[in-house]
Amino acid sequence: MRIVVATIKGGLDDFVSQAFGRAPTFTIVDVDENGNIINVQAVQNPAYSAPRAAGIQAAQFCINEGADVVIAGQFGPNSSQVLQAAGIKFVSAPPTMTVEQAVQAYLRGELTQPILGAEGSGIGPRRGMGRGRGKGMRRGVDDW
């Protein structure tokens, strides 16, 4: 079984990153049929600095790496749709867990559900007070 964990620096001792698409690294952990970790590889997340669609690109990376399971703190709606469509299980782990602890917790059946958060980093167009009519903060409002 191949488990991909979103991480900051990578490795079994690193903590689970709370962001999936914008995690700096992924730690790829191969586990045998007895639940023993047989291989660990830390790799850069190619989507880490992507200007947009980081979650989708990170999900595609996991697909290309042959992931059976992906562990992160939370997943955006786009990345979760891509992982689900590919048949990859994805679950969330708290930021206090190391990669090794998260993998063992998953294997014991303790990590079962993903936490879905908002996609994106908060940069870009957002809805303000004016609801797109140019009236936010009373600008352009003549009848006040």
TrEMBL record:
- Biased composition (Basic residues) is annotated at 128-138
- For the Dinitrogenase iron-molybdenum cofactor biosynthesis domain, which residue ranges apply? 13-107
Q: The organism sits in which domain of life?
A: Archaea
InterPro entries, alphabetized? Di-Nase_FeMo-co_biosynth (IPR003731), DiNase_FeMo-co_biosyn_sf (IPR036105), MTH1175_dom (IPR033913), NifX/NifY_domain (IPR051840)
Spell out the SUPFAM superfamilies in the cross-references: Nitrogenase accessory factor-like (SSF53146)
Q: Where is this region: Disordered?
A: 117-144
| PANTHER family in the record | DINITROGENASE IRON-MOLYBDENUM COFACTOR BIOSYNTHESIS DOMAIN-CONTAINING PROTEIN, IRON-MOLYBDENUM PROTEIN-RELATED-RELATED
Write down what this protein is called.
Dinitrogenase iron-molybdenum cofactor biosynthesis domain-containing protein
Organism, scientific name: Thermococcus barophilus
